[in-house]
Design a protein that fits this description.
2 copies of one chain form a homodimer.
Chain A (H helix, E strand, L loop, with lengths): L4 H6 L18 H13 L3 H11 L8 H16 L3 E10 L3 E13 L3 E2 L2 E3 L10 E8 L4 H5 L9 E4 L18 H8 L9 H25 L3 E4 L26 E4 L1 H12 L5 E11 L4 E9 L10 E7 L9 H20 L7 E7 L7 H10 L15 E6 L7 E5 L6 H9 L9 E3 L8 H5 L5 E6 L4 H5 L12 H20 L17
Parallel strand pairs in A: 5-6, 6-7, 7-8, 11-12, 11-13, 13-16, 14-15
Antiparallel strand pairs in A: 1-10, 2-3, 2-9, 4-8, 5-9, 10-12, 14-16
Chain lengths: ~525, ~525
């Protein structure tokens, strides 16, 4: 899931509650029973998740890890019996980047190895560097200017909030019945201040860019920064741009807040602090393109097989862990769903196409590129012939929890259909349809050009704040029963959409984002 | 707190519930008000804790960090106005050991920096070594023998439990009223199987020793092991003996379970895994003695000033963090208690002596040595003259939570006195007296020779399983309000004991542990 999720959810307006069912869905109970049996009793979802995470490793946009995962998923989907597996370029992304060494420690007043990892797309240090640190506290460019002349050959420690809030809640959370009831109801308008928060982010980004330029021009040796986390879990993201022509940045390590706070407290108490760091990072500039992996189960109905039901999730991740909950889990479930459909021998009328997206974390680039190449450019809303052929797109990218329902994304005619499709899964905990939108992941690319794109509601488990974009998003976080359940629900939805006489109903086409 | 705590608690028999008060205690309300005012409104406890943790660093037995802390606490107690501050040898301990470099990463099938730290008293690697790994699963020496011939020049990864239990509870816990009621009641006898668990530990220790010998003789390059923890928190302890004449061991790093499990899963799936590690550790063999820090507030009553009220806690810690909750918190509270007593200008009748113990984690060595040197040898129960002069010893070492009461350690005549001493602190949450014993820390050294030694009941906060002996036992875990409260309660207890007409009543003298 892309990092904008919380703001987007807060800024979303839900429509009215789903109207009563308009049509009666013809469900194939025997087929659904086969899907459930295969998915619950002969699941391969944990094996798939293991290969996606442990074996392929971190999957940062255009990294070696993502390339490995692209190759592996293409081969594995073919092994599952899918046709037309392909690693398809969606357009230009930017530089690849991988870590070859990551080491940081405090060496004075005593030795302490810090927990940390280079921020993405930051350059290497010139070998092992050992320097005094300077703590920089700056909320404005004027604050920043005060440090001029003090940073040469120093390791800059960016200040953070003064203390950590003790963890009073368990990491694992599930939706209660009450939570789901609230989720199914329309949301109130966003509270005043949401727009301000967005402005705050822009100001911060501008400050951050100014800071990088200044640190480089002042000749600082490196940067240590921290954003969030507790007890050795910490957030991570990029510390420099990935564009081929990006301005130079400094070697930078994101640390666990406990370590960062210790450095800051020592400096504030007047204790001289020295840090050594060694990062070796490798940029790849031969291929700046980004890719998605696609594969198909061809439809069997002469009239309908030119129509497509898509399912997918993003395969890329951040780099400090193996992106297990964000979003190997979603990909493993989607791969398992198509494996189930092949293993059961069911014959879908429409073509089913799985897509594992690249470069989602930087802005849904993989899915947006694919949608633009195949369906429509949201800027112009010029529709390509494939646009009318898409029956539905289903996405999974809200962690590793089981499915509790689906976001109907304001589509009032689809909602009662989903309600009926979910009915067989009430015993597995999936029964909620909300008209609310959810954002920050790849179904948005489809929704943006008026196609029926949806994301499922999932139990959060430890997604926020523990695993999402942290160094602890690993295979150990996955719970087999949750992923099996999700695979069965997704496979059934995809099958229902592939068998239905009509494609899923659509919302009215949006206006072009940039009218000509 | 020493690592045996859980077994000891489980194996403890409580006596009957405290009888009704036998005597009426004369409490000096004005003095207690002064103590409370100083301790709650002009506290220095967090400043003291900061110096103990962040500034002095990890304080492993006989390490540089512990030496720094000994010097600092001696100086600081003198600054607080205490007399006779002294760093007093308690006897022979073994080698000092400090870390100068700690680095470990997986380098194949892809690069991943592991979270880990050398186990205490393990030797250095010969620079950076990069080796293939072998996973060793052995529950018996016969299991172990199967690996002969496979370990030369390999990094050995010790197997661990197959998966991590998701964290469903928050890290921070406090005693509820119900919990305290249960704690005040006698405990049932230990469940069958407790003795077996003790046997299991011995078997494991013997296996571990055999394993070390074999790994050394087989020529393994190093060891990675993991015991417990989740989300980047991990346990740590020693991996080799500290005795001056200890047999050689291998360089060994204790890792976060997530990292260890990833290595194991990859090997089990047939993926070749390579790890690089570099540890630089420094042994100190010039001074093999262990030390305690002591200082006094001399008594003012001619008749009683030769009698002593002691308070203390262990200053040493494990090495992966700064031992904030185990036990800088206890030491900071004890130091704050004597600071408060000096700052208020109160004139205790008896002498008050603070002791900050060394080498507790390896077996309560500092306090046991002190007791043997000053009071009595539990082996013979030959009493020294100081034995009868000790009015009481109060210990703090159950984390960083506020005080909720006191363990009367089976002393039925002391219990009603404590009940009255606690009465003024009901509003601060401290009101429970239990006759139960608690073990695994330094009051046991006093109790073992028939002197009145007690430990307070504290809220657990995140002590188990998050901070106790982990890499996350840092200053960030301390909550100022808890430590202020504890300081006030301790200062008051010490003052009450110093002013009371009689010393605290004692239990009957125990028999010699080794009768002559």
């Amino acid at each position: 899931m892309n990092k904008l999720v919380l703001l987007t959810l807060a800024g979303t307006l839900a429509g009215a509650a789903p109207a009563a069912a308009q049509t009666t869905e013809k469900l194939d109970a025997a087929a659904l029973a086969k899907i459930r049996d295969e998915g619950l009793n002969r699941s391969k979802v944990m094996e798939t998740a293991f290969y996606l995470t442990d074996v392929n490793g971190p999957r940062l946009a255009n990294s070696d890890g993502l390339k490995r995962a692209n190759e592996w998923t293409k081969a594995q989907l073919t092994k599952f019996g899918l046709a037309n597996a392909n690693i398809e370029a969606w357009g230009d992304f930017g530089r690849g980047w991988d870590i070859e060494k990551s080491y940081v420690a405090m060496t004075a007043p005593y030795y302490h190895a810090l927990v940390g990892i280079p921020k993405a797309w930051t350059p290497s240090t010139p070998g092992l560097v050992r320097k005094q640190i300077v703590v920089v506290k700056a909320n404005t460019e004027a604050d920043l200017a005060k440090y001029k002349g003090q940073l040469r050959d120093k390791i800059v420690v960016m200040s953070v909030a003064a203390s950590l809030k003790p963890a009073t809640e368990g990491a694992i959370r599930r939706y209660s019945d009450e939570d789901l009831k609230k989720l199914a109801a329309p949301v109130p308008p966003p509270p005043p201040g949401t727009a301000v928060a967005q402005d705050g982010r822009k100001i911060l980004a501008a400050l951050r860019a100014a800071m990088t330029d200044m640190l480089v021009s002042e000749g600082a040796a490196g940067v240590l920064s921290a954003r969030g986390g507790i007890y050795g879990t910490f957030n991570t993201s990029n510390g420099a741009p990935y564009a081929a022509d990006a301005k130079p940045a400094l070697p930078e390590i994101e640390t666990a807040p406990e370590d960062q706070l210790r450095l800051i407290r020592l400096v504030e108490a007047g204790v001289p602090v020295e840090v050594e760091m060694e990062t070796k990072t490798r940029f790849q500039t031969q291929d700046l393109k980004g890719y998605n992996v696609v594969a198909e189960i061809p439809g069997t109905d002469k009239k309908l097989k030119s129509e497509v039901v898509m399912l997918g999730g993003h395969l890329d991740s951040w780099h400090a862990a193996t992106g297990a909950t964000d979003n190997a889990a979603g990909c493993a479930v989607m791969m398992e769903a198509v494996r189930i459909l092949k293993a059961t021998g069911l014959k879908p009328r429409r073509t089913i196409r799985i897509a594992l997206w690249g470069e989602e974390e930087e802005g849904l680039y993989g899915s947006r590129g694919y949608v633009k190449n195949h369906f429509a450019d949201p800027a112009t809303m010029q529709l390509k012939p494939e646009h009318e052929k898409l029956a539905a797109y289903f996405n999974l990218d809200n962690g590793a929890g089981k499915i509790r329902g689906i976001y109907a994304q304001g589509n009032e005619t689809a909602a009662p259909i989903f309600q009926q499709w979910l009915a067989p899964f009430a015993d597995l905990g999936a029964s909620t349809v909300t008209l609310r939108n959810t954002g920050s992941t790849d179904h948005i690319a489809f929704d943006a050009v008026g196609m029926p794109g949806f994301q499922f509601i999932q139990d959060g488990l430890d997604y926020f704040p523990t695993t999402h974009h942290t160094n602890q998003d690993t295979y150990d976080r996955l719970i087999a029963d949750d992923l099996k359940q999700a695979s069965v629900v997704v496979a059934s939805f995809v099958y229902d959409a592939a068998m239905r006489d009509q494609k899923l109903p659509r919302k009215p086409l949006p206006a072009p984002a940039k009218p000509q």
